[in-house]
Hints:
Elements: H1 2-28, H2 34-39, H3 45-55, H4 61-73, H5 87-122, H6 127-141, H7 144-158, H8 174-208, H9 211-218, H10 223-234, H11 236-260, H12 266-275, H13 279-307, H14 309-312
Helix pairs in contact: 1-13, 5-6, 5-8, 5-11, 6-8, 7-8, 7-11, 8-10, 8-11, 9-10, 11-12, 11-13, 12-13
GO molecular function, one term: dipeptide transmembrane transporter activity
Subcellular location: Cell membrane
InterPro entries: BPD_transp_1_N, MetI-like, MetI-like_sf
Amino acid sequence: MALFLFRRLITLMLTLLVAATVVFVVLEILPGDPASVMLGLNAEPDTVAALRAQLGLDQPLTDRFFGWLGGMIVGDFGRSYTYSVPVTELLADRVAITVPLALFAITLSTLIAIPLGVFAARNHNKLGDVGVMGFSQIGVAVPNFWFALLLIILFAVNLGWTPAGGFPGWDAGIGPALVALLLPAIALALPQAAILARITRSSVLEVLREDYVRTARAKGLDRRAALWRHAVPNALIPVVTILGLQISSLLAGTIIIENVFALPGVGRLIFQAIAQRDLITVKSLVVVIAAVVVFVNFLVDLSYAALDPRLRRGGDML
């Protein structure tokens, strides 16, 4: 188990280093100059040069990279070109919206997908199975922003049950805040739930064909008990794997969904920073999101040890 954890920690650190390097290089080679964008097309060359020096853009590429990377390690993400405040301050103001939204969405996705997947597996090739697969096909095919627009038209415009956008703030109370996050969370959750339901169905069906499940049934265990006591727990490893991978899709989806619903979260901040060519903000936020995704997948790896006894005994099947 100790070797398992050590390998995963080394992989986590190397992945973060590679991600930071790729993000920095890709954004640096993009055409255009942040100082020129900020000052406009008619700016004088000496004014642009002075702003480049103020922003540190006149320094060598390697110096900027290692300075930025060293700052990231100690929690200094740099200073926003556009807002003239530390990026950590911008992030702290918006993470209180994006994190609850992502958690809300992944909770809804799990609560929808796993019961539907198990139900479809239990009713294999029957009407219920066909219905769940039809739902999953629609969920996979339709993008989340289209779901978002349909939800706004139905629940906000026609029924008036929820606001069409905006966020009242947590100071207004948990109830109004959660109501404002409900439609965005559903728009994010439905496509992910469709994928997760298919994976759950396939995994449970595969486990149901195993010899130990047939042996349990032969010993007199009824179908429901065999399903929930033997099949579902052993089918969870691929489900948990996909669940961890969906975190990245959810965080990427917030960039669009937060703009559709006018939520002042991290996703909308990234969109605005890209439009304003605020490279230091974009680089730092993308690396933060990458770090969250890598850390979540590290937690998924740890969950394997809870689900698979072989890892607790010192084996490593991954």
